[in-house]
Amino acid sequence: MIQKLRLTRAQWMALVLIPALALALMISSISNWLDQQQLLSALLIMTGLVLFATGALPEFVSALLVLTLAMLLSLAPAEVVFSGLTSTACWLIVSGLVIGIAITETGLAQRLSDSVTVHLDSSYVRLIAGIVFIGILLGFVMPSSVGRIVLFIPIALVISENCGFEKGSNGQIGVGLAAAFGSHIPTFAILPANIPNMIMIGSAENIHGWSPMFGEYLLLHFPVLGFLKALLLIVAILWLYPAKPERTPVKATTSGFSGKEIRLLIIMVSTLGLWMTDSLHQISVAWIGLAAATLLLLPGIGMVSTKSFNQKVNVSAILVVGGLLGIAALINYQDISQIVGTYALDLMPLNPENHFTNFMVLSLTATFTGVLTTLAGIPATLTPLAGQISELTGFSLEAVLMTQVLGFSTVVFTYQSVPLMMAMPLAGISIRHAARLCLILAGLSVVLLFPLDYFWWQMLGWIG
Asked: Is residue 18 in some structural domain?
């Protein structure tokens, strides 16, 4: 006899949200701009995002569901639907997991974390705040979120263990999220720290002949989008994942580095060096990471055993990332972002006499564009339109370009950011925790930080 089906709160939420949002899309005027395939794609994308955001199904099941339906409905060719599984992001996750195993098993993570734990374990507030600001400091010296996350998350997880947090506990999740988000989100306010920043600067220079100086960019963005956003991040984590660290005696490490640690340090320093100079040698960070992971797996050279690899490399995480990137690829293939962008441009209430409204509209447009194109797509989509938007708003060209930063520093869904998707399996944290934090942080940013940023820009003279 079939047992009565019992639905969780998340499943009930998904059952309500999916039909409601589908109905809203069907009756909205935007549906008139979409053909049948585009409308089906939009409905599938929306369903997938709801499933990921609510955690109604196991994440890898949601990913497989989206990929399978996209193929059954012939919404895109297989090379588009499954492009996420062949993308650099998946191989970054594999290499990051292997590097993380090596950092942990050689004892290097323990050595580094012991020196940090004694300064952070006196309170949970101090712990979370300390980890977030360490991530931000790394943004000034390591111009790659991938490098920061691969290096810092294994160390943060050992700090979590030193504080008595078990895997899956609020404390462990909070520490992992603090390391991942702290290394990534506030660092958008540091000029060379993330890929969207550099895409925006490069395209602005090529198209408009202008690019900001490091100090100019930092002064404009870091006080609000860096420092204040970091404070909001800390408050959100403390509220969502309350915990209390245990002060455990940490033994001072007096012995020298072992042979394995020295080999690992050489491989890590070489890898980070190649990551930081990728603009010179033009080798993708994914293939550099994969080369490092291969070295770490080689018998006699590496320090990650086959057993450790089989036990600790999470295949379901790769499926999740593949599904999320498949959603992004489907958006681009069906030209949904371009159609919605054209539709939105006609509706934008831009008026040269209303600077605050213009600022909020441009910032929200950049944020919404990131939902449709991922973060890296924001500058690629909006930079060519900056001159036209400048005329409509009365803002300077430079001010219009800089509003993009508010958009790509505001992550609404995890699939928008490869570093965040990569960080979750490295930290052993479910995507749904990152999804919830993204939504809360995005909401707080729009309500609190966007208006504050407007007044900050006024004080600096960027807006008349």
From this structure: no
